[in-house]
Amino acid sequence: MIRFHRAHKTYPPHQIALRGVSTVIDKGEFVFVAGASGAGKSTLLRLGYGAERATQGEVVVAGRTINQLDREGVASLRREVGIIFQDYKLLASRSVLENVAFPLEVRGIGREERSERALLILKTVGLGDKAHVPPMTLSGGEQQRVAVARALVHQPRIIFADEPTGNLDRDMANLVFDLLVEANLAGVTVVVATHSLSIIDKLNKRTLVLDRGQIIGDYLDPRRGVTRESRASSGMGEPQEVGTTAAV
Amino acid sequence: MTGVAHHTMTDGAPSDEAAATVRPSPSFGLEKMWRVQGSEGRLHRREILRHHLIGAWSHLRESPAFTATTTVIMGVVLSLCISGIVLIYNAHILLEYARSSVGLTIFLRDDAAFESREQLERYLRADARIGSVRFESKEEALEKLRLETPAVSSLLQGLETRNPLPSSYAVTVVKEYSSPAIYQELRRRLQQFSDVELVQYNNSLLGELSETLQLIGWLGGGAAFAKSFVAAGIVALTILISVDRRRHEIVVMRLVGAPERFIRGPFVVEGVAKGLLAGGLGIAGAALGFSVLHHILASALPFVPVWDRIAFLPTALLAAVLVVVGTVGGIASFGAVRRAIGPMDA
Q: Could you check whether the bond before residue A13 is cis, i.e. omega within 30 degrees of 0?
């Protein structure tokens, strides 16, 4: 579903964000990308949804090689993914319902159907009664739930979430992650960049640990510290390729 | 947290302690929702056009003062531009009028034989460039002079027996051939007939008039062309400002996968709309200016015989001006939005 192969990213003039990252995220996986600020988490996600291009190496998402996509190709990819940000990125000039329905609008889905689907997902995230208010009148947690609803409304194959709970209190953070876990249970591949260990520990999902642009750990069971390598060496089977070229 | 904690460090995440109080996850029903497939959706032209129109309308009304100011500025520039077109148009009309008024007068000798007169007339009628030929006898010329100058008609009475006025042919040239060069050539040829005394035409008047009107036309056209660039520049500038104000919206559009035409379309429609609005204002301004100036000049110089011929632009030309202005607005916007949106993040 998502494959990074020796992906480098350098920002001008010489700021290296990623150094030869290689990993594979399979369909239906829930993966955390963890690390301190500046470790390269956001860059990794931005490469995934085509906001950046790898300086070297290859990134393949849903069968598309990102570096080969033109602008329309990137737009087409994004219609198949959902993206969630720490700062929500909602449109102040549109109502909550219109914000949520926006991904359906750009797909050309009729007004009636998109309103129905947007309202349904808003009810699902507990904001059915806020459909017609401007998003800026909502609390941070509510705004993030709107952003999650917008990311889910078109039933994406992949969700990229970049520090989705960074601005939220504990309860709201839990609620947002509950939504992401449930989307994952419905078959959506979820990639979440976070520096919150508590959430990783709570959900105990596969976790890629980044440090200074390199993957230094690929934990299948972060609570017990089981890495891909340790599981493979103990004969517990599975992993295909996956790993880090530079890090470990 | 053993494994991951070795490698990561938190930046004070707000929900660290939250892990300790893990509560059971509620079920939102997403899984059930996922089983219900919505339609795939397809961007129809009608839907895209609707989106562009609504987007452009929201851009225009978002800041009425900005829209009004820029439209009025463009309207003023365009009214000057349209005034230039009015100048060209009327220069053309006057030139045509001048050409149609110019004619050759062939004065015959007093002793011209009837046969040679007939020969000359046959020659004139056979030439495709000649529009009309009218003979005027000596007597008719005297009568005409008498009618045109009633003040001296008593003096002319004594001339009836020894009329000094020559008989003549008044000749006009068809419009397509009405140029100083043709007149000169005809004059040279007709002068060779033995019984032709003199061939006259208001050569210098036509030549000077042509040159003056052509100069006016060039100046008007050049000014109109330059001003249309200024107007296009203003449209491009307002669109750049508009794009800058919607940077966040454009980034969000890109993030949800909006096609480029979906993002750029409203700005292009906005440019077309501003062009049309400013064009309408410009036409109204130019029409008002024309009307006032025409009235003042016609009152001050009533003896100039052109005031009833000078006119504002015909409807078809006005429609063409609007189409051009709208197109220029659209093209300027397209260029501006392409330039502004191209390097935008995400």
A: yes
Alpha carbon of A222: minimum distance to chain B alpha carbons (Å): 6
Contact residues on chain A for B28, CB-CB shorter than 8 A: 124-125, 178-179, 182
Q: If we measure between CA atoms, which residue out of B42, B43, B261, B30 comes closest to residue A156? A: B30
**A30: β partners:** A190
Q: Which of B3, B16, B255 sits opposite A219 (nearest CB)?
A: B3
Which H/E stretch holds residue B299?
helix B260-300
Residue of B61, B256, B263 to mutate for A, most A C-beta atoms under 10 A: B256
pLDDT in tens, B152-194: 777 777 776 778 888 999 888 887 887 778 888 888 899 888 8
Rounded-to-integer distance, Cα B217 and Cα B220, Å: 5
| Disruptive mutation site among A76, A154, A198, A229 for chain B (greatest number of B CBs within 10 Å) | A198
Give me the interface pTM, i.e. the ipTM. Answer: 0.83
The enclosing H or E element of A85 equals strand A81-85
What pairing do the DSSP bridges indicate for beta strands A158-162 and A189-194?
A: parallel
Cβ distance B248 to A89 less than 8 Å, yes or no, reads yes
What chain B residue is nearest to A178 in terms of C-alpha separation? B25
What DSSP line would sit under B158-214, residue for residue?
GGSTT--PPPEEEEEE-GGG-SHHHHHHHHHHHTTSTTEEEEEE-HHHHHHHHHHHH
